Automatic annotation (TrEMBL):
It holds the Pfam family DUF5814. This is DUF5814 domain-containing protein. InterPro entries: DUF5814 (IPR043852).
Amino acid sequence: MAITDKIYVKNHRQLASQMETNFPKGAFSGATLDLLFQGENLAKLDDTTRDRVLDFAEDFLDCDCEGAPHCGHPERKFIAYLLELRETGLGPQAMVDVMSDEYMVYAYPGDIRSFLDDSIRQLEAIETLADVDGQPDATDAARQARKRLR
């Protein structure tokens, strides 16, 4: 299961009530993305909540693909965001706190920890394969990326 399947809308019930509509709790579920991408009900939200939801939409849903927001770009952008948070030295709980403050989404710290561990393992595999294939630049890039995540 991808980490983006484990990212949830904070204050989900309150938002659903304000918007007078039901939508899934998962931030990257299809119906939630449709709701945010279309934005018709956002006017019903209080100013602070609307600003955070719009920030989320601008930072992750801004895509020119014909299939947007179901093209996979929002998920990839969010994964890059999580990796950037880790590279700044934040631990899983701090990462959850930041994403919650910035975008009103959350995850369980254990899920973030598992995601980071999986990312490091994948980079180790890339590093090994690149070394075996005789690609020193790719080996070094994977090694440096892995070190930034530790």
